[in-house]
Hints:
The complex is a heterodimer of chains A (about 400) and B (about 350). With about 400 residues, chain A is of the alpha+beta class. Chain A has three domains: about 10-95, no CATH class; about 135-240, Butyryl-CoA Dehydrogenase, subunit A, domain 2, CATH 2.40.110.10; about 260-395, Butyryl-CoA Dehydrogenase, subunit A, domain 3, CATH 1.20.140. Chain A has helices at about 10-15, 20-35, 50-60, 80-95, 100-115, 120-130, 245-260, 265-280, 280-290, 290-320, 330-350, 360-380, 385-395, and strands at about 135-140, 155-160, 160-170, 180-185, 195-200, 210-215, 220-235, 235-240. In chain A, about 45% of the residues are buried. With about 350 residues, chain B is of the alpha+beta class. Chain B folds into three domains: about 1-100, Butyryl-Coa Dehydrogenase, subunit A, domain 1 (Orthogonal Bundle), CATH 1.10.540.10; about 105-190, Butyryl-CoA Dehydrogenase, subunit A, domain 2 (Beta Barrel); about 190-330, Butyryl-CoA Dehydrogenase, subunit A, domain 3 (Up-down Bundle). Chain B contains ten helices and ten strands. Chain B has helices spanning about 10-25, 30-40, 60-70, 75-85, 90-100, 190-225, 235-260, 265-290, 305-315, 320-330; strands spanning about 105-110, 110-115, 120-130, 140, 150, 160, 170-185, 185-190, 225-230, 230. In chain B, strands 1, 2, 3, 4, 5, 6, 7 and 8 form an eight-stranded mixed sheet that branches. Chain B has a two-stranded antiparallel sheet with strand order 9-10. In chain B, a hairpin with a 2-residue loop joins strand 2 (about 110-115) and strand 3. Chain B starts with 11 loop residues before the first helix and ends in a 12-residue tail after the last helix. The interface between A and B is large, with 60 and 51 residues.
Amino acid sequence: xxxxxxxxxxxxxxxxxxxxxxxxxxxxxxxxxxxxxxxxxxxxxxxxxxxxxxxxxxxxxxxxxxxxxxxxxxxxxxxxxxxxxxxxxxxxxxxxxxxxxxxxxxxxxxxxxxxxxxxxxxxxxxxxxxxxxxxxxxxxxxxxxxxxxxxxxxxxxxxxxxxxxxxxxxxxxxxxxxxxxxxxxxxxxxxxxxxxxxxxxxxxxxxxxxxxxxxxxxxxxxxxxxxxxxxxxxxxxxxxxxxxxxxxxxxxxxxxxxxxxxxxxxxxxxxxxxxxxxxxxxxxxxxxxxxxxxxxxxxxxxxxxxxxxxxxxxxxxxxxxxxxxxxxxxxxxxxxxxxxxxxxxxxxxxxxxxxxxxxxxxxxxxxxxxxxxxxxxxxxxxxxxxxxxxxxxxxxxxxxxxx
Amino acid sequence: xxxxxxxxxxxxxxxxxxxxxxxxxxxxxxxxxxxxxxxxxxxxxxxxxxxxxxxxxxxxxxxxxxxxxxxxxxxxxxxxxxxxxxxxxxxxxxxxxxxxxxxxxxxxxxxxxxxxxxxxxxxxxxxxxxxxxxxxxxxxxxxxxxxxxxxxxxxxxxxxxxxxxxxxxxxxxxxxxxxxxxxxxxxxxxxxxxxxxxxxxxxxxxxxxxxxxxxxxxxxxxxxxxxxxxxxxxxxxxxxxxxxxxxxxxxxxxxxxxxxxxxxxxxxxxxxxxxxxxxxxxxxxxxxxxxxxxxxxxxxxxxxxxxxxxxxxxxxxxxxxxxxxxxxxxxxxxxxxxxxxxxx
Lengths: 403, 344
């Protein structure tokens, strides 16, 4: 295993910084500490192992680059959403591997902050940031995908103990996680959105079985998770039993608008990498100088600018205390489709490279083939395109459905 | 958008502008100019020395959004830009534009040749995409790739010709200049043109935003009230999703404009706002036309008039060339891959 040497964070000084000075400090730290082998736009790239990722992300947290807006009392850095945006712009500018604990940091954490008890906040939140607990998301089920309210996993209470029975599917990273954020039903199926509760279930608990599913990228990244009479203490129930769904909706609303805020800046990193690789190849260099591809790249740049505009206006709205409502659906719809258009353009271009392929082109091909396949999932997870369009029609436009 | 020192907000101009635009509907061009000037709308970004309000471009945005929404038949964007462009070199002309006494426009396409003859300049050439040229007193033309000149339309040698163009509300003309003599003082420095084009990108996007907002509102109303197969059109998922996509486009335009007048915005953000507005604005107005069926083709429903204007503005800003140039600038700024990571 490669040992990652990381400069100790300058927490004593960065804690005092704000605005551009904060940006510069974060930028310097990232550029000084991100190993070349982690950068998918580098010739030295090799996919980091789980332990390497965990060490890196824990270091990022200590440097002030995770838990940015969480209260200091729970291990966060207590900064503003605008500073969160600044940090994410810097994270996005570099080809950093996706977090192995994004469910913990961007879903479970905010939900616990919103509905958790003091004891739960102290117990769960620092563990998420320090990567002691990696989380996965147990929402989808074989019979409840887009229609989450149809979920069948059941939670029954007896005194201070709950028993969970059921099955989850498409649970990304369950094989490497310590905790699963489980949405389960406490009442009859007919109750739909009522009677749903959320639990922080340990994956090493008796009765939990994880079965990986080989997926589109050839890896076993998502899983089925079976719960067979799994005992969960009341102290691991998140929020009141009937509050589960409402809490999820409230948090998801904000998360959809703010999660992976670095996305548009990462998208730009990908665009720069593609152009850079093309310009190193004699055939591709000629192609990208053609007006046809100038227009195509112009369109990608406009897509990225519009995405940045969506993100920045959402941050401004939240910072001004506005309710974000269903607006996150607009940004999600835009980025997922724009990223697919871009990924298809990358494949189209790189497929026309000269022979034998140059190392820089091969490197780019590997990255963009992976991005292309991942991007196909982006219009499905976190609410499909069709679900987002439905949300916009129902909740933003408030179109009549009646006769 | 930021507050100014006087505590004004750009949005405060929206209501005044909407009322003024509505009042202009039945007026001739000259009366419209006086009416808009009386409401202070022609000098929003011009200096106070020429009777303007000396506000940042962000304050002109809601004014032209209202003009777009109300299908104003007056070259408002040109008047706003000229009031400021002329204020240093030709302050009296600037004041006349701001007060509505002089009608002026800009030739967005083409340029003319200039030769010096003593204290005068002689212009020859052909320019196009000149809004309302047949009714204005002066027009600004580009000389070669450098300076610009203000030319009175009643000068000898100015020939204004009808031109094809989709926008019937603000018709565009071609103008031939055949040995037109103007004073050398009417020539403005080269930097003027680039600033005009840059600001025009934002204001064209804003005009398109106004049109797109109206189109989506009309499409929503129609989908909710028109009944087929015993139900409102909006019952159908195909219609709901089409309208949702139009809303996505509309908000994309709005946010891109906000970003383009932000503190850190530059040419990239302004071009992006214009280009996004062209693409999404066309899609929204074409989509609204589709939802309206046959009704959208009548003059009772203004959707096609908005579509005409959106397409005209897209062409006026040379969207296709701007898109290619944006891509080219981006490509040119990136060095070929080496062994180092591209992100530095």
